Amino acid sequence: MRRVPPLPVEGGALVEACRQKSIELLKRNLSPAGILAATPGARAQSRGYAAIFGRDAAVCAIGMALSGDAHLTREAATGLLTLARHQAANGQIAKFVDVAGQEADFWYLGCIDATLWWLIALAFLDRRDPAGGLREKLAPEVAKALQWLAAQEHQRFFLLQQNEASDWADIMPRSGFVLYSNALWYCVKRHYGLPQADETRANFNQLFHPFSADLAEYRRARLLAHYVKRRAKNRDLYLSFVNFSFFGDEGDVFGNLLALLCGLADGEAERRTLRALDRAGVASPWPVRVVCQPIAMDDPLWRAYMSRHRQNLEWQYHNGGIWPFVGGFWVAALAQAGERDRANAELANLAAVNAQDGWAFNEWLHGCTLAPGGMRGQSWNAASFLMACDAVRAGGRACALKP
């Protein structure tokens, strides 16, 4: 793996500046109902970003609790409480809550990861402040959320099943057993003491990386592996998803990082995964591109909806764009793996990309041209930067996602 020199003084100053700017941005984006996805304004309002998003608010709750700022710490749970009040009768947490209209939106095919992130954030805040009694206060909502997720679990693989375009990469064709969602599911199982966590971990590695593991003696597993082992190209990363007869080997960077950070990979798998991401150059020049090899329009996995608003073309948005938000998890994974110098250097690079265009904290940038895209003032950019700072400071020993 490529090594870098120790963090220079100017890099340290940039990191500290970004830490302060992150705290300022999160304070600016606070509302009485909790943290908004982006800085309020006409464009954010028209695009629906002036709302409480399930996954965003959860990630922000973790970052706010780690910020060291008393006001942010007090407000960390506010958005989670708003989401709890708008929970569906079946237990699902909304993709987002429109605060002005007091309306919850659950996405086209059902947003699965909002519920996962909500549970993870609750567990994290409760662990940091047991006296606050957050999990006890929300016990009925937690029970319903866990029941809803359990209804999505395959009863032999103990992995969640989902439709395509129904997690954070909401215009990508990942479906069936999805890497990203199941990394979070294992994390939830560990936090809440759910049954079959060991089976979930074993089947996760067997299905998403069948090249290095013996599949369970179950005929459905053998059938899935038959198609994967014959056609998969990138055998060093976890597959982005596995379905009945097709799968994703485009290289889902976020899903692979979460597999490491949530404790699903042993030491060799951790090293293998980081080496593969490094070879793909996902952090060059800025951390990180969220896909190693974008899905092209002539690929069998291409879907017509990916070109909606010309948004998910190659090297754009979820299809290979640079997401500083995910860059925070890249830094945390390096720190966890003991790559301290590299983690420090990448933390400075992450500060640099957030600083572009006058500390814009852009949602994403083009994977090749580096042109900014999406919304400015993204709250979870700031939150994941604070999470990355904490991971580097702790030397990776206390990953925020692990129980």
Summarize this entry quickly.
The chain has a domain of 120 residues.
Written account of the structure:
The chain is mainly alpha-helical and 403 residues long. The protein has a domain of 120 residues. 48% of the residues lie in helices and 5% in strands. It contains 16 helices and ten strands. A three-stranded antiparallel β-sheet has the order 3-4-5. Strands 6-7-8 form a three-stranded antiparallel β-sheet. Helix 3 runs antiparallel to helix 5, helix 6 packs parallel to helix 9 and helix 12 packs parallel to helix 14. The longest helix is centred in the first third of the chain and has 20 residues. The protein is globular. The two termini are 29 Å apart.
Indicate the topology.
Elements: H1 9-28, E1 30-31, E2 34-35, H2 42-46, E3 52-53, H3 54-65, H4 70-75, H5 78-85, E4 96-98, E5 103-105, H6 113-128, H7 134-137, H8 139-150, E6 177-178, H9 179-192, H10 197-208, H11 219-231, E7 241-242, E8 247-248, H12 253-261, H13 267-279, H14 324-336, H15 340-359, E9 364-365, E10 372-373, H16 379-394
Helix pairs in contact: 1-15, 1-16, 3-5, 3-6, 3-16, 6-9, 9-10, 9-12, 12-13, 12-14, 14-15, 14-16, 15-16
